[in-house]
Amino acid sequence: MNIGLFTDTYYPQVSGVATSISVLRDTLEEMGHQVYIFTSTDPKVAKNVYERNIFRFPSVPFTGFPDRRIAYSGGLHAVQIAKELELDIVHTQTEFSMGLMGKFVAFNLKIPAIHTYHTMYQDYLHYVANGKLIGPRTVKTAVRNYLKNMEGVVAPSKLVLDTMLAYGVTAPIKIIPTGVNIKERVPQNMANELRKQLGLALNTPVALSLGRLAFEKNIEDTIDAFKTVVAKLPNAQLVIAGDGPARNSLEKHAKAVGLEKQIMFVGMIEHQDVAQYYAMADVFVSSSDSESQGLTYLEAMSQHTPIVVMESPYVKELVTDASIGCAVHDVAQLSDNILKYLKSINSLGDERMLEAKIKAVSAEHFGERIVEFYEEVIESYNTETQKNNESFFNSFSNPFRH
User: Fold this and answer.
1) Which residue from 325, 243, 235, 229 is spatially nearest to 286, judged by alpha carbons?
2) Which uninterrupted H or E stretch holds 363?
3) Which InterPro entries match (predicted)?
4) Residue 6: which of 95, 112, 69, 77 has the closest Cα?
């Protein structure tokens, strides 16, 4: 199958969407399919650099979100490329420029298009004119209009499904949680080596927060919860890995609550080092309540690191045993459960439940379900096209009928 993935964000940009698309591409290619990425240009990628099966289109920074890009031309060129590649299906990953281009390509090539809804935009409205220009109702209308004429929608979680239904989306929707590349567990000696590099003793209880440091991630709540943890477990340490617009504010907050010695900001880390950070930690923490698929949760699980995260419909499906972690409602519960895992390192719950869950969220399982959906959509599209053609020609078959 020849598959076109259309996205505004892709490597070297760092985001959960870019990661999920990379996982999808690698998995589909391992299954024998041809995958082509249609995306925006990036200042970090020189024009003369060869990127296998990646096509970049002229773009500018997105207003209010400068590390994201918006393509402004290339629709006809994309159609030409897609035609030469003989795409069987278009899979858009954004509702903006490249998503619209993907719909344009599918329409011109008369092939089906499906979409994955990654982002709960109502949690990001503050990036545009401080939330004064665009409101939730505008988002609802825009998303519903974008998904018109789509042959299918992938919802990474029940939360996304419920949102799509509330928006009035009529296209077929299937819940397919994004998978992660389940790598071998990082050896203990490598995890210990990272601790040494960070200046952490091997017996230090360590909590990890990893991801983009954005205001909507509510990382201040993690810091506030950790203040209570340190009061009861003075040698505990919180490592915050990642970068973003909220970093300066978070560093100031950590200092304001007197935790500058107990909280370590390590900045952006290389993708190949992420697993080592999860393995180094005793518990992974997230106080974000805007996650639609929680890739960091899955990555932590793959290294057998328990997670303490905010409750949501997605998390309810994911966290089914103490070996996986727990879901909490507020800062008080966050601190209580961080403390519980730091005091009972790797001794809670049934490891067999964790292993089963890891297998269920593997990239291989994810790829199999996506391909099944592709096949269903293509078959349905071809059947509908054939019916429409027959209906059209039948209308001319008897010119004398009344």
Assistant:
1) 325
2) helix 363-394
3) Glyco_trans_1, Glyco_trans_4-like_N, Glycosyltransferase_grp1
4) 95
Long-range contacts of 385-392 (CB under 8 A, 24+ apart): 385/110
Question: CA 221, CA 254: separation in Å to the nearest integer?
Answer: 11
pTM score, whole prediction: 0.76
Residue 295 has pLDDT above 80, yes or no: yes
| Predicted pLDDT of residue 3 | 98
Helix (H) or strand (E) holding 376: helix 363-394
- pLDDT of residue 161 exceeding 80, the answer is yes
Structure tokens at 117: 């809804």
Gyration radius of the chain's alpha carbons: 23
CA distance 142 to 138: 6
Dump pLDDT digits (tens) for 114-160: 999 987 655 454 444 454 545 568 788 999 999 999 999 999 888 88
DSSP 74-108: -HHHHHHHHHHHT-SEEEE--SSHHHHHHHHHHHH
Q: What is the pLDDT averaged over residues 378-382?
A: 96
Q: What is the pLDDT of residue 346?
A: 63
Calculate ∠ Cα 143-149-152, nearest 5°: 80
CB 28 within 8 A of CB 100: no
**Domains of the chain from N-terminus onward:** 2-179+363-393 (3.40.50.2000), 188-360 (3.40.50.2000)
The pLDDT of residue 37 is: 98
- Which residues does 302 contact at the CB level (< 8 Å), separation at least 6? 180, 182, 183, 185, 275, 278, 358
- The three-class DSSP label of residue 154 is strand
**177: which DSSP letter?**
P
Q: Which amino acid is at 271?
A: H
Number of residues written out for the chain: 402
